[in-house]
Amino acid sequence: MGRLGQFLDKVFDRPRSASPSGTRSLVGATGGTPLKISASLRDYQLIKERHQAIQHEGLKQSISNLIGFLEVEQGSLETTILSKLDSEIKELSEIIAFLSENNGSVSSQKQSEDFATEIDAAIKRAQSMTSDPSKRSLSLKLDRVGAVSHITESLHMAIENYQSLGPSRISLHAPKKTAREISGRVVGALAIVKEMLDGVPVPGLKAAVGGLLEVLGAINKLIDNDDDLIKLIDHLQRLLRILTKPIEDGKNGQNTSLEQRIEDLIENIQRITADATKIKEQNLSNRFLGRGDNASAITGLSTAIDRAVDRFQVSGAVDIERDIGKMKLDIGVIGKGVLSEFEERALNAIQPRADSARYDSASQSSSSFCLEDTRVKLLDEIEQWAEDPNSRPIFWLCGMAGTGKSTIARTVAKRFNERHCLGASFFFSRDEDDRRTANLVFPTIAYQLARRISSLREHILKAATPDVCTAMMRTQLNELIVEPFQNSTFQCSTLVIVIDALDECVKESQITEMLVLLAPAIRSIQNTVNIKLFLTSRPEVHISSEFGEPGMEAVSSVSILHDIEKSLVRSDIGRYVDHHLQRIAKVILPRHVVWPTLKEKETLIDLADGLFIFAAVTIAYIGDAKHRQPKQRLRDILSASAQNQVSVPLVHLDILYRQILMASLPDDDKGEDNQHLKLRICEILGTVVLLLYPLSSRWLEKLLNWEEDTVEPTLGGFHSVLSIPSNPTPIRAFHKSFPDFLTDKRRSGEFWFHIDPNEHYTRLALICLTHMNTSLHRDMCDVGNSLVSDLDVETILQTKVEGHILYACRYWAVHLKEAGWTDGLGAALKYFCEHKILYWLEISCLDRRLSAAILALDSAREWTLDDRSSTMLANSYRYLLYYRNIISLGPSHIYQSTLPFVPRRNLSSSPWERELHRSPRVIMREDDDTWDRILFTLTGHSGDVNAVAYSPDGGLLASGSDDEKVIIWDSRTGAQIHSLEGHLGQVLAVDFSPNDKLIASGSSDQSVCIWSSVTGVLIHTLNGHTKAVTAVSFSPLGTVVASGSTDETVILWDSENGSVLRILSGASSSLWGIRFSPDGTQIFAPSSDSDIIIWDIETGTIQSRLQSRFTIYSIAFSPDGTLLASASREEVILWDYKSPIILRKLEGEAYSVTFSRDGRFIATGKHNGQIVTWDITSGSQIGAFGGHTKLVRSLAVSPDGSRIISGSYDHTAAVWDMKSGWESPGESDNKVHKRAVHCVAFSSDGKTLASGGEDAIVAVWDIEGHALIHTLKGHETAVRTVAFSIDGWYIASGSSDGFIVVWNVEVVGPVRILKAGNSVERLEFSADGLFLVAEYRSWGSTMYAQWSAQNFSEYYRQSLTKKEAKQVLPDSPADGVPPSGTYLARNRSSQWVKKRRQGSTVERLCHLPQHDITGSASFGRYFVFGTTRGMYWLDFPPETFDITSTTVYTDSYMFDSDSDSDSD
């Protein structure tokens, strides 16, 4: 608490936790500044609560009337005026409390009647002062001030009359301190005020307070009349409240009005001090004899102080009213205001955002506003819409190209800004990177709202974290805009947000999503704020169709700009033309020249034909100051148009553009002579209009390899159609109609300036590849091993990568896709693939465009005709698709964490091997030597993935998890699109609607949610089940959603409105998966009692049951609808469900099942994480693919049959490539472990390595020669753990069936077989070599046991507690003896390989790309780990990685807390 707060606590004797003066804070009319409401509100509430208990009906009614009057005025006046009622309200509350507690009985009935009469008279007079509707706001406010003053005086007199007739003074307060105690506190407080006035720029204030302080100190010592002194102190306390104001304001200066008020107050204080001095100067006897005179003198002082304070406060109320009259708000201020340095820093931290999108930003400086007296009717209509609280909250201004939409939008924004009603604005532009998508719309709007509206600022700043500002649009809108409005006290009569040119957003899906999100968001905000959204766009299909949706129609008004009455538009264009032609004539032509003629002007207006862009371009062309030939240029335009009288849309605009282009050539070169100049003009124009985002003249010159300072002169004749600012601002077309004209063969094809898009895209693709081939090199941004999360990548790219190179890296493939084949372009692409592609990925990583890079490689692969390039691009595509998540960590991980793991065959066929000289080396790998089936792994969930689905068009994936989320993914890149949060339990099922627009999800929270797959918005929450919803399915037509539950019912829901259509009952156990029959007439539901129940949808009755022996977890129909497959833990059954008969049983566990698109194969998911494929004709298993570490619970095949997605209990989903067939490739004869490797361990001397796997084999390897020594066979089930004895003579291995085998390395055979529970998890020898300790599972519990390492006899087995096991193994790293020096280590749950020293991470060296790591160990520079697909053996050369320890380390230490000590 500051010094001022301590001072106020001391003066007013309030609790330290209270706000000043026992007040509470509201937002007042001064713009978000907290105003103080007096402590009398407590008493006011007491009056409201207790007055009903008064038995005298007249008095009760009078007090009710008083309450009503005060409640009305509470919202109309400054609380500083209402606070005048403080003492009267307090007294009144005491009287009412007394009356209520004494059943309303008083000594005199007349006493209550008189009291009531006086209150009624006061109210009547006050109401007459405030009820005149003809008075203006200011005079009415002054009357209200007078009304409250009248109420105060009347109520004061009524209370005094009441008390004089009734009992002695009523008090509900605690015993008061003595007058001298209070006065001492006040005098002390005045001393503090005097000291605090140092530095306050109010001359005379400190001296006045000092004089008053001296006099009052003396009076305090001499006066012993407590009542008089108390009155004086009460008034001094009011004065102290006023004096604290300049202390606060003085630090920041005051306004002129406040300074004058303070000066008046100082004069009054000086007069009071002079009067008080006379009392002080009386001698003692005079004071004693004249005590009554002293009392009256003190009363006079009190009255004088009170009047001084009243004058100060009332004049302040007038000043406030005058300021409020300038605002359009009831509460809060919209405007730039003055922000503190802290607030500026906090606001600037809202990143990323698009500052150039604001209507008045520097980038909009060349844009115009509506000329005065034009668009009057439309602008009036918009203003009326905005101010009408009953109008629809969204206004869509739709118009064809050139009709002036953006000019109107800028004018609307400007007008509402001038009236303090503009909340924010965002102007899309496909020419600017931060305005060409909707990624930054909501962060930018939130930033502007926070700057303008103080009461929203705190809530927005709290929400605007980097994660939220870069999140999906739904999250941005809710957390940055909707919730701050809902949580704040902000209110206003009108708040407008302007968003212009929706059609300029290059991602149509984003605009669709934004419009879907905005409708409900605006409705939710409108509960407290009259918020209006003004939108403009061309009538594009994706926008128009969204405004035609019922939900949007209900909240939007539409104005079709090109349908506005032509006479109005013509009149507005006439004003525009007349104004600008007069300006041109005044600036360029001699004064005596009359120009243009009326006929010329009318003809020009006719030619515009309602298009403002025609008028704007014409004016810019005619008034070009460089040429200074307005008369001739106007004649040329009119003459050219007169020769073409065809009434075709845009024809006159085309003629105008042709005239401008022809005029760009010198007068003596109008023919075909100067081909060079024409080619240069075409080259630069083609580049400017076809670039995917604009470049400045400097970067254009570098991109085109032109000499410096040549672009602007070449474009000198195009200022009427192009914005050509000085560097570094980009060059761009003023209006999209100009690029449309140049590239449309029907409009410009017969002229030399026609831009053939294919030809220019080919040229641009070659230019981009050439620049990348000559400029890119390894670590060109000098970031070393840094992580992207630790870098300011925007600054790095700006300083390290030139603008034209960055453009080439971003958009080469887009231009290539539209280009035609040439040998030169093919050669440039081949060189790029062989030498530069990894360096390009570095830039893409820093630029956070790896998803775009995936699509670029795929597109280039389809474009090229060269086999070598095609192979390298396909290899690069697979590489980036699989390793994208790791590469995104930082550019160095291309070389440290991914290249070493590229399959040998693919690495050897690429030029990448030369980049491995500073990378870990894979000296042995047990997986296949080519790309495996997993294309990419989806890692966004934090719980088991229970359900996955493909959208019918194949573009999206959905997954549901125990983490209560549904995530939507891009099926092409694996990028996360939406994270849907709304369930309160595990998500157990997901399904797409047939039209791709909806997703249904079922949860353990007993609900079904229907989401928009486009926006991620929750549309319906369907409640009806009484237990977990385990399955959902859309009908073939998408009109019905079925849900199955453990409550043994299926509910059919209307997918559009969420109503219940039918409940299907009759099952006797939980339902685990449901499907509609292919014809949509039946529901198939497998149950936990081993049946598949078939319901008839029409009747709701059970038609039949398919009987099985085991619980069925999943079912799937064949694509032709003739077969049904069911999966259980023992078998897969193929049914002819119509007969119904079993066609075939496939032996083997299965927890999920799906068919191939041709119906010949099925895939099933196993408990161990494998996916198994079957030939349904032969019934044989044809493939098994590893990649998950736990049960595969869900499978789905893509619509084209080329991919499968799987969801697993290892918290991941994976997408598998099935293009090459559903069969497994043949196993390599050199592969020791044919299946997953679960564990690895080094001997203590580092010479030997042991590995164990799913195939029940223990393999022993020679470290030095990297060769297999022995294969130990003796287990019958998977080997889960291996350990070397301290002397290296023995290997102990434990398996999943609970057996431990001890092997003698030399003899190559088992020494002893031991039994430990159901499954052995870990084995470890004690450091002294005396004991072997096992951690094992027994009936669900973790237990420990030890054996003597001398003979491994069961006789010497001893069960241990965990504490005892720790005592046997004191030398584990967790117990303080980690390896010395720097060593390699990996957290058990992590993919990072780290260099450590004494248990602490020194450096992250490598992020292993495999998600299915089962165990790892290190010795010196060697690091070995196992996966579900085999074993990897890495060598970290000490000359590169500085590994100094030769101590064995493994992540299988039984009590190694060190392995989990570092956060990843």
Report the major sheet: 5 strands, parallel
Mean pLDDT: 79
Low-confidence blocks of residues: 1-40, 75-82, 103-107, 133-145, 165-179, 244-254, 283-292, 320-333, 1373-1377, 1457-1463
Rounded to an integer, what's the Rg over CA atoms? 42 Å
The largest beta-sheet arranges its strands as: 4-5-6-3-7
Shape: globular
- In DSSP terms (H or I, runs of 4 or more residues), the helix count works out at 43
Helix content: 25-40%
Written account of the structure:
- There is one protein chain.
- With 1464 residues, the protein is α+β, with helices and mostly antiparallel strands.
- Helix content is 39%, strand content 22%.
- The protein is built from 43 helices and 57 strands.
- It has a 5-stranded parallel beta sheet, with helices on both faces. The protein has a 5-stranded antiparallel beta sheet with strand order 10-56-55-54-57, with no helix packed on it. The protein has a 4-stranded antiparallel beta sheet with strand order 11-38-37-36.
- Helix 1 runs antiparallel to helix 8 and helix 36 packs across helix 38.
- It is globular.
Short description:
The chain has about 1450 residues and is α+β, with helices and mostly antiparallel strands. The chain is about 40% helix and about 20% strand.
Defining traits:
43 helices, 22% strand, 1464 residues, disordered N terminus, single chain, alpha+beta, disordered C terminus, five-stranded parallel β-sheet, five-stranded antiparallel β-sheet
What's the helix and strand layout?
Layout: H1 3-12, E1 24-27, E2 34-37, H2 40-50, H3 57-74, H4 79-82, H5 86-101, H6 109-130, H7 137-165, H8 179-196, H9 205-222, H10 226-249, H11 256-281, H12 284-289, H13 291-324, H14 341-348, H15 376-387, E3 394-398, H16 405-418, E4 422-427, H17 441-452, H18 454-463, H19 466-469, H20 473-487, E5 495-500, H21 508-525, E6 531-537, H22 541-547, H23 550-553, E7 556-560, H24 566-588, H25 598-608, H26 612-622, H27 630-642, H28 651-663, H29 675-690, H30 697-704, H31 711-714, E8 722-723, E9 732-733, H32 737-743, H33 745-748, H34 757-775, H35 793-800, H36 803-817, H37 823-846, H38 850-863, H39 867-887, H40 893-898, H41 904-908, E10 921-925, E11 934-938, E12 945-950, E13 956-961, E14 965-970, E15 976-981, E16 987-992, E17 998-1003, E18 1007-1012, E19 1018-1023, E20 1029-1034, E21 1040-1045, E22 1050-1054, E23 1060-1064, E24 1075-1076, E25 1082-1086, E26 1091-1096, E27 1102-1107, E28 1112-1117, E29 1124-1128, E30 1131-1136, E31 1141-1147, E32 1152-1155, E33 1161-1165, E34 1171-1175, E35 1180-1185, E36 1192-1197, E37 1203-1208, E38 1213-1217, E39 1237-1242, ...
Parallel strand pairs: 3-6, 3-7, 4-5, 5-6
Antiparallel strand pairs: 1-2, 8-9, 10-56, 11-38, 12-13, 13-14, 14-15, 16-17, 17-18, 18-19, 20-21, 21-22, 22-23, 24-25, 25-26, 26-27, 28-29, 29-30, 30-31, 32-33, 33-34, 34-35, 36-37, 37-38, 39-40, 40-41, 41-42, 43-44, 44-45, 45-46, 47-48, 48-49, 49-50, 51-52, 52-53, 54-55, 54-57, 55-56
